[in-house]
Amino acid sequence: MTALLSPASVQDIAELRQLYFDVYGHGYPVPLGSDPVVMRRLITDGTAHWLTARGPAGGLAGSAVVLTEPGSRIGKLVGLAVHPAHRGGGLASRLTEAVCDQAFATGLLDSVYATVRLVTEGPQQVVVRNGFRPLGLLPNAVEVEGCETLALFARYADGVLERRAPVASVPGRLSALLSAASCGVGIDYTRTRPAPCRDTAATADAVPIELIAAPAFVRRRFLEVFPTADDRFFPLHTPNAVLVAADGRVEAYADLDAVAGSCALVAVHPRPAAVTGTLEAMIASVARAGADYVETLLPLADTEALEVFLASGFVPSAVYPAMRRVNDRLHDYVVLSRTSRQIDFRTTAVSPLLQPYLSAYLSAWTTTYLPLHEVCR
Q1: What is the pLDDT of residues 259-281, one digit of tens each?
Q2: What is the pTM of this model?
Q3: Within 13 Å of residue 341, how many CA atoms lie on the same side as its CB?
């Protein structure tokens, strides 16, 4: 089938909502495919590259979007959908190539990432054919058709990976993840050594945590606490809740999505490591609010913060090389995640490219949650 690709328009919204329903049913957890207000804003405000595909008869056959935000040099590929009647002809790959090329052509992006469902290997093959590289796995990250694991991929602009700032050492529990990234991304982490192990055993104190879910207030407070872009970094996530220690010692800003069953800890004041002793209470609070999966994004070089989260049961899930540009250097980040549900990989279609990341995750999870004598048996 020869499909015509063109930018999405406001007039396409009704058909786009029907397309996402035809592809995902009621299970699509992203407003981009269901909320007409959000869809109109993305189409008109200039922050999204949105392409549609129409068949010879004019019907909507597919859609793909790259989201961006002012001040960030990262995009996210979302909303890739091809109508069941038009599958098998390479349309998903063509849409992915075209919308990513359009986004990179602006010269404003260093990378575009995608979180890919692992129901089948097809979506993984689509992004890999279009230059995306595997970065890791996010077990139990989203509620779609049940609790699903996602894979993280990224595509880079030319020359970006060559301008990475080296990281001298990391906590030893990240070693397997970095080894997987050396193969999957094609970068060299052999000079990054395990950091000396420090005593960061998780402790829980009696300070209660209050969860404030008031999106407008939280956004205002977030910008007051982190007034400049240099103070905050979690691309394409806007906090809608804040977790506050009753004694005021720490505030953790979260993007909480009860529909998807997930929560991203976007930023911590006064610094990420300040959550020491409060993380268990924070996890319990977001679980009561409907999120069984929690993730955070930390600089690979922030050993102190990494050790605090690792000591509280977070598992290294993915590494994002050259994620953040500071002056002319790009800095690596790591995704740490924690899930309160049982992880089941039996129905997960993990392609050979992702196998090293699966092994790395299992190794880190085992180290975190199994007693040493059980591991050695």
Answers
A1: 889 999 999 999 999 999 999 99
A2: 0.93
A3: 21
